Amino acid sequence: MSENDFKYEKIFERNYGIFLEEEQEKIKNGKIAIIGCGGAGGAISLALARSGVQNFVLADPDTYETTNINRQMGCQKDTIGKNKAEVTKKAILGINPSANVETFTDPDPELDEIDKILNKNPDALIAVADDFPFAIIAMRKALKKDIPCVTSYPTGALVRVTVFEPGGPQPEEAFGLPKNLQYKTLENLMFSTKYRKRFKSTLEFYKKEGDWTEEWFEEFVEGKKPFPQIAPFVWIGSSIAALEVIKLLSDKWEPISCPRHWKIKPNEAKIDEFDPPSIKEKLGTVLFKLKEKFSFG
Question: Which of the residues 103, 200, 233, 283 has an alpha carbon 20 to 30 A from that of 95?
Answer without folding.
Answer: 233
